[in-house]
Amino acid sequence: MEDVHGRSGLAFPMTLVVMQGLILIIWTLYGSYAPDAEGTAPSPSSSSYTATTLYQSWLGVHIMMLFGFGNLMTFMHRHGYSASGYTFLVTCLGLQWCVIMYAFWHGLLGEGKLRGPTLDMTMLFQGDFGVAAVLISFGALIGKISPTQLMVLCFLEIIVYAASEAFVSEVLRAEDVGGSMVIHTFGAYFGLASSYVVTLPSMVLDGLDKENRASYTSDMFAMIGTLFLFLYWPSFNAGLLDSATNQQERALVNTVLSLAASCLATFLFSKGLRGHFSMVDIQNATLAGGVAIGSTCNMELGPGGALMVGLAADGFGWREGMGEEEEEE
Amino acid sequence: MEDVHGRSGLAFPMTLVVMQGLILIIWTLYGSYAPDAEGTAPSPSSSSYTATTLYQSWLGVHIMMLFGFGNLMTFMHRHGYSASGYTFLVTCLGLQWCVIMYAFWHGLLGEGKLRGPTLDMTMLFQGDFGVAAVLISFGALIGKISPTQLMVLCFLEIIVYAASEAFVSEVLRAEDVGGSMVIHTFGAYFGLASSYVVTLPSMVLDGLDKENRASYTSDMFAMIGTLFLFLYWPSFNAGLLDSATNQQERALVNTVLSLAASCLATFLFSKGLRGHFSMVDIQNATLAGGVAIGSTCNMELGPGGALMVGLAADGFGWREGMGEEEEEE
Amino acid sequence: MEDVHGRSGLAFPMTLVVMQGLILIIWTLYGSYAPDAEGTAPSPSSSSYTATTLYQSWLGVHIMMLFGFGNLMTFMHRHGYSASGYTFLVTCLGLQWCVIMYAFWHGLLGEGKLRGPTLDMTMLFQGDFGVAAVLISFGALIGKISPTQLMVLCFLEIIVYAASEAFVSEVLRAEDVGGSMVIHTFGAYFGLASSYVVTLPSMVLDGLDKENRASYTSDMFAMIGTLFLFLYWPSFNAGLLDSATNQQERALVNTVLSLAASCLATFLFSKGLRGHFSMVDIQNATLAGGVAIGSTCNMELGPGGALMVGLAADGFGWREGMGEEEEEE
Predict the structure, then answer these.
(1) What is the number of domains present in chain A?
(2) What pLDDT is attached to residue A219?
(3) Is residue C258 part of a domain?
(4) Residues A178 and A63 both lie in one domain
(5) Residue B196: inside a domain, yes or no?
(6) Which residues of C touch B245 (CB under 8 A)?
(7) For A247-273, b where at least 16 C-beta lie within 10 A, e where not — what string?
(8) Which of B243, B250, B265 sits opposite C37 (nearest CB)?
(9) Are residues A59 and A193 located together in one domain of the fold?
């Protein structure tokens, strides 16, 4: 039986070959560039839009995936090394797969027919959003599943994620610009549900708790991850919004204010209730502030409203967090 | 009495609640979006300007605040952990407060009346400039003041900083694009002055010097901070300049050349006078080269002129620095 | 005789003074801003182009130089500290020098006359491309040459690099958008050739192999470097392409897909042939995937084609890599 580091067996290479093979065949037979990435004609989009601008925002999201989400997990000292590698694995696999599923479900639910995947910067955004959902789920499963199981999780979750996302936007026609519902909440519950199913009994009995403590080095890496999350969250929330109207700028500044308020509130709770600053708390506050403002960040909340969303998010987050009582050295 | 880590007392939470409460009330009652972040009409600005472009430059400044300025301080090994946390605290608090003060003083000195704060990407730049001044002052005070005192410093310094900045630009009508005078010089002297006033006697008597030495890990983090300063300083100097004329590009390339020359000169002095490369020297050279070119970076210095500014900056910086004689392991 | 850390002798400061002096004189006497960085008139370029957009892409390339290329080398534990410093040295020196050589050779081979260097964001790109070639060569020489020898290598290699690059583009009129041939292949062979010539015999006899092993900390820094390479490689390949046509967006998405496929394939080989994940393999895969797609990234390969390039690149890379048999703790 494969252990958590997946050191033996043919399961991993065979699973990877099958998945990458399937993805390659679909992209080769049915895939194409989107119109704005094809041919040599001038870009059909407006002059205020360039691929580079979109690419820079996407870079921020990609940095969040590889650094932020990966390094939050390296907090768990012993898992640090594998957590970063597994994040890489999920990102490379999920990105390719999620663009296919996005086209499939949006074609089916939106136009009632099958549609091949198209490729441009916007689709890379959609691909990373699916990766985000899987990485959030992975947070509930780290140390409990093998690399092979992680790939299977990634493959299956993205099918369900893309169906859910297409249902919300094509059928319900609901707006969820920052993906608070379809990405973050979905990913969290999918991960919790999976953790009841996919568990290696030997690992749970093993003393995992003692591996969950912080060291100076892993704290520092977690800090780097937290800073990147804090820095690039506005890219995540506002990157795909129309830059020709004012709502993109509003989404950016609302997210920045909400994050600042949420983190300040955490300094309050962290010292008030624990007696000292905790790195974990700042991480949780960043996540809470970014997710809370996500769905409404493009609306006219007013600066005061954005601050209140951040402050409230942190209050709620703390009611959850205190149960865990993370202890640092 | 609260110690330097602020482990006891109600002073910290109460100060934070009062400050964040005051800021929240002002933003809610008097704050609003700037025209380019309000409504759903197309952006009034020219087509070559998008909020995302400005946001990307602002991101560089924000990275400098959280990584560069914070990690320079982590050079002091034992303070590394708290220095990063305190940088976070100052950034979240100062950003919100400085935009309010900016509107207040520019309204008073520029238009002779009170003005409520407005929010858009440009204002987030102005907010981070105030944060920069406080973080520079903090460099002279680290290890000597408690978190509560740091918040009070942040609150008061930003009032004076914003008044000074508004006076220079509205009354003197002087140009200081990179903020060399109103941000860097102001912050340094404010910090030096404060260090005579706000000092915990017990901490100074304590053997701080032995905590000031480098370790391999903290050196590496200082290196990361230095690299980010070196990389993003052009964003700091040129981010707010008009991109419709050529002066923004000139400011960018002038700053890049000045930084390169300043760092090369440091390799010379560092080896020539010390006999080996010192990480601290490269940090100081980056700061010197970036600050020196700041006020004049948009002018037609010529490429040779930009190089000379960087080389000269480093020479002057070294006369100061040699007194310290930092020793590394 | 100067040792590998260059602790003694006047060779280093004198070499640096002569080189920086020569560069300063050339820039001062013959250098000028390019038209788009001069004067106060509106930028002559199209409205969809701004200096900031180009600057953001260039930042990615600069990050690759300072973080990625530097930290790949820190994998070698004992050299980590000096490798980062030397990368800094090469970047600051090579950037200034390569822009001069670019103008010289393009003037000579393209227009048949001498041309003074011009400065704008595009030229900073060209400067960093030369730095990339030197850093690649340095990878074959680390631990074997002194800082002084490194500066001489940088100076000479850039003369040859710029001549080769100008020959390919001006005389052969061949397109090599990502520089796979003129930068990466050139740099690798120049480094290999140099390693036969410039070697300190004492260092080679010394037990360098035992310094070549990984530690947890240096692995983590290598991981950060790898992530930055993976993230910013699209900037390297597509940054200078015309954003008014669709080929820039195509180059961006092709590079992203190729990198993802190349890294996935490495997970396969790394586990299949070694039995565990290796950080070095992911680094090599990123390099292989980015270089392989470089020359053709703007062409209409189709999404499937881009994936195949990445997968094939990794296969070839592995045939080379297995000979080394890097061992990790």
Answers:
(1) 2
(2) 63
(3) yes
(4) yes
(5) yes
(6) 40-43
(7) bbbbbbbbbbbbbbbbbbbbbbbbbee
(8) B250
(9) yes
